């Protein structure tokens, strides 16, 4: 009950909205400077608050920019990556709770990824900085069938995050 009150408070006080991939978000920064990329003009950087609960997942998706993740509060979060080496995991959280997790992680451009909260009845509040800046034209959600063909060894996590 206490956790749900904290989640409700964060959603309300930070003015978070449902994110298409799962969880809640709000853009907090968009640089005024832009640059030309092969995909068009993009802001130099953008930043969001992102809140994910253990009752939800961040579905597998891909963007065309690097994404830096910074942990603020709650339980550790696992970022699941699908790439040429298969399924990999990055742990985002406080390092004194688990030496394999860090308060900062990087997801490289064009990597398929999603995330989970692995503790029951919990949440994680993070910030994500995208450079070049995020644009929904660069956002691609994946379905189970597409990913299962390319990564059959990862079918369990694919089933969970699609």
From TrEMBL:
The region annotated as signal peptide is none
For this protein, the record's InterPro entries field holds: Cupin_DUF985 (IPR009327), RmlC-like_jellyroll (IPR014710), RmlC_Cupin_sf (IPR011051), YML079W-like (IPR039935)
Q: Which SUPFAM superfamilies match?
A: RmlC-like cupins
The record's CDD domains line, in alphabetical order, gives: cupin_YML079wp
Domain DUF985 spans what residues?
9-142
Q: Which domain of life is it from?
A: Bacteria
Q: Which Pfam families match?
A: Cupin_5
Provide the protein name: Cupin domain-containing protein
Give the organism, scientific name: Algoriphagus aquimarinus
């Amino acid at each position: 009950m206490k956790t749900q009150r904290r989640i409700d408070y964060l959603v309300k006080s930070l003015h978070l909205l449902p994110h298409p991939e799962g969880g809640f978000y709000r853009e907090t920064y968009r640089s005024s400077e832009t640059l030309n990329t092969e995909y068009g003009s993009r802001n130099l950087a953008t930043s969001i608050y992102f809140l994910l609960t253990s009752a939800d997942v961040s579905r597998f998706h891909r963007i065309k920019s690097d994404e830096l993740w910074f942990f603020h509060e709650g339980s550790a979060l696992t970022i699941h990556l699908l790439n040429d080496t298969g399924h990999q995991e990055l742990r985002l959280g406080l390092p004194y709770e688990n030496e394999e997790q860090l308060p900062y992680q990087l997801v490289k451009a064009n990597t398929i990824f999603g995330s989970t909260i692995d503790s029951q009845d919990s949440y994680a509040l993070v910030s994500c900085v995208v450079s070049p800046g995020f644009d929904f034209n660069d956002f691609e959600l994946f379905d189970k069938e597409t990913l299962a063909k390319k990564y059959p060894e990862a079918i369990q996590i694919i089933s969970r995050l699609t």
